[in-house]
Amino acid sequence: MEQLLNKLNIETLSLLIFGISFAISYVVIPKVISINKYKNLMDHPDVRSSHLNEIPTLGGIGFFISSLFSIFIIHFYDDVDICFNIIIGLTILFFVGIKDDLMVLSAKYKVLAQLFAITFIVLHTDVDIHNFYGILGINEISIFITIPFSYFFMIFIINAYNLIDGIDGLAAMLGIVIFNIFAILFYFIELDIYFLLSVVTVGFLLAFLRFNLSNRNKIFMGDTGSMILGFLIGIMTLRFLALDITQFQEVYVLPQNSFLIILAILFFPVIDVVRVIMIRLINKKRLFYPDRCHMHHILIDKGITHIKASITLTSSSIFIFVVIFLMNRFLSVIGLSILFVMLTLFTFIILIILDSDTSSKKYRKKFKSFFPRSFQKKEFRIRKKIIISLKRLFYRNML
After folding, report:
1. Domain identity same for 164 and 307
2. Mind listing the pLDDT tens digit for each residue in 169-197?
3. What is the percent of the chain where pLDDT is above 90?
4. Sheet strands (E) in the chain
5. Pick from 199, 224, 252: which residue ends a domain?
6. For the chain, what is the domain count?
7. Residue 56 in contact with residue 106, Cβ under 8 Å?
């Protein structure tokens, strides 16, 4: 097989591996749905759920099987010997995710399992981050900073991605966008194994999306799937941040802007988690307190369908990445940071305007009480105009 694969160029191999990953997931997922229904392993709706019916879960089984088969094929292109470490990490998260989907594990045990899985990646030299390129005045960094930073970053990404998996299509659509971006970046840098891993992920996500958006054979990816996706995104993120100056130049990224590029790629998972943490701290609730204050919940609660909400957030994510990526060549890290903060604040303002949750209304009212009556009337008229404009342009059924 190795001789046969060596005769294929990377473009042809990527098409082949995409087809294999898609086909395996497309075949496996219906079997998982059947078993779930037969064994009654269903996701039962509760007060936080955005669905009314019992839905099969464990769609991440398709991700895991597709990943294993695909990595077996592409490992011949692994000149840094990281595939074995990835398989170990995926396997740990797969079994922990299965148990969590079936029995519900505490956050403490999940984080411990994630730390164990991440260890096999963080200790691999290919993802070592040696330089911050002047970010916060930091340049070269020691291994004593690299390792804790890498652990924190991957834990954050895994759990951030787990939290956005709340409505049909969103996690898969965002994943497809994120891994397409990484695939393009790693293709031009000629990091073949990471390019092929990204293509593999896009393949099984597209197959999953067909069922996740189905009315008759619907399935959720569950914690099994979201943790696998978060883990793979974390690997791609660390490898991107570990690029050298020459590699950054090949993809038109200024090294000092690399962290902002990553934040743009992961915009909604990162910003949503930061926003939710802020809200829970303000409300004096536990950080892992279950609620409906996520971005997708706000859109759903306004009467927007799952598909429209997912497309809205995914399209916005693409727009923000394109803006940050294009401007990174012309702006300093300070200028690009200001642009990123402005885009983030604009997103938060729109969400504040749309949020119809009782607690949000209460805090809006409390905040407005500090301003004159004339200001409150203007704020109300502006908010009303924005909602009416959104209804006319995009969502006629929006509340």
Report:
1. no
2. 889 999 999 999 999 999 999 999 999 99
3. 44
4. 42-43, 55-56, 131-135, 138-140
5. 252
6. 2
7. no
